[in-house]
Amino acid sequence: MTEHNTLHKVVVIGGGYAGTLAANRLRARDDVDVTLVNPRPEFVERIRLHQFVARTGDATIDYGTLLGEGVRLVVDSGTRIDTAARRVRLASGRTLDYDYVIYAVGSTAATPSSVPGAGEFAFDIAELESARRLRARLEELPLDAPVTVIGGGLTGIETAAELTEQGRRVTLVCGRALAPTFSAPGRRYIAKWLTRHGVAVLEAAAVSQVRPDAVVLSDGSADGGVRPSALTIWTAGFGVPALAAASGLRTDALGRLLTDETLTSVDDDRVVAAGDAAAPSGQPLRMSGYAAGPLGARAADTVLSRIAGTEPAVIDLAFTGACVSLGRRAGIRQLARKDDTAVNVFIGGRMGAVIKEVTCKFVVAKRIRLEARKPGSMTWPKGGPRFEQPASAARVVTSP
After folding, report:
1. d(CA 220, CA 103)
2. Is-contact 313 262, C-beta < 8 A?
């Protein structure tokens, strides 16, 4: 590290994949004071919450094993970013002064108010607290009690697969296609695995109402009418925390912070976003653990560039595909072009499961922990800038 004289205060809001990696990477300079604000005293592996619910794995890690020396953890939640005063206001009543903020608040569940009973009776699996409630409820139910998982995306598939492998009676209501971002061969493989293991997959059906002991499917679906459901799990869609909007910063329709391609807020060049809550150029990347790490690294690099008085680089990330687990003994690695469109190639079965597990471990061991030991070491597949960057669009760099 290079020695510097002026101390620059950076507050990272959110200790998920993007925020934790960004906090570690900021230590590339010894004149950066890093505070990580997170509502929990432990790191949550969201990509393992379906295992936590089914009691086939843990989903929390001690921050002491993840954060580099000098990163200060504050267990609290941000309630407002006061950009005029350069302070982050916390739920506890405390305030934190900053020179720069990295906005990495992540994503949350999005149970729709338009579906009667969904908010009241359906459980979600997007965060640790809701996953704990879901696990406790599962333990109260006999194995043969009907369970309904709503949402045909990767979270819904993994949850349904994990539960059916535990001997549960599971129905997966997709709302539209099963695994819509995967290739047709990949989708067929997943559908066959689920059906073979006893999951009733309803692709065309959608839920119009959730009751304490049943779900009502919309008219015209293949299995129209009322279906018994002792437990309903909602995995369809995600939202984001409202902190950016509450702070007077512009957001997209979902509430993600609007940024340029360097992940800098369009309203304030001392606020930089990363992860699921960022909407660069109003065209956010797919919400995923895959993108979170590179976005966290890019956000940290943007802050470090501004401190150094240089022009930050733009997003440069190539997607390679996605993984989904099918219980503990099978999985699928779907390959994709760098723009995240699937190709008709996948790896399934036992090897797919191995790849998924290695990927989960890689995110923590080879990204976050390595960045704690060697700030600035993380690399990722490059796909080139997403858009042409005209000279007139260059930002004025604010002096530290």
Report:
1. 43
2. yes
Q: What is the C-alpha to C-alpha distance for residues 17 and 280, in angstroms, rounded to an integer? A: 18
Tell me what percent of the chain is helix, strand and coil, each rounded to the nearest 5: 30, 25, 40
Strand partners, 339: none
What average pLDDT does the structure give for the chain? 93
How far, CA to CA in Å, does 66 sit from each of 11, 38, 72, 164, 366? 17, 14, 12, 33, 11
- Collect all residues with Cβ–Cβ distance below 8 Å to 52 and sequence separation of at least 6: 58, 59, 128, 131, 135
The structure tokens 């560039």 sit at 305
Which amino acid is present at 68? G
pLDDT tens-digit series, residues 244-294: 999 999 999 999 999 999 999 999 999 999 999 999 999 999 999 999 999
Contact 152, 172 (CB under 8 A): yes
Check if the beta carbon of residue 284 is closer than 8 Å to that of residue 252: yes
Alpha carbon distances (Å) from 135 to 79, 99, 131: 29, 41, 6
Query: What element of type H or E holds 322?
Result: strand 321-326
DSSP 223: T
Q: Quick one: DSSP state of residue 115?
A: S
Residue type, 59: A
Cα 225 to chain centroid, rounded: 34
The alpha carbons of the chain give a radius of gyration, in whole angstroms, of: 22
pLDDT averages per 10-residue partition of the chain, 400 residues: 75 98 97 98 96 96 97 98 98 98 95 93 96 97 97 97 97 94 98 98 94 87 77 94 97 97 98 97 94 97 97 96 97 97 97 96 93 96 81 39
- The rounded distance, in Å, linking the Cα atoms of 13 and 292 is 14
DSSP symbol at 365? I
DSSP strand E in 137-189: where? Answer: 146-150, 169-173
3-class DSSP state of 30 = coil
Q: Where are the beta strands (DSSP E) in 137-292?
A: 146-150, 169-173, 200-202, 207-211, 214-217, 225-228, 231-234, 238-239, 257-259, 271-273, 278-280
Q: How many angstroms separate the CA atoms of 360 and 383, rounded?
A: 22
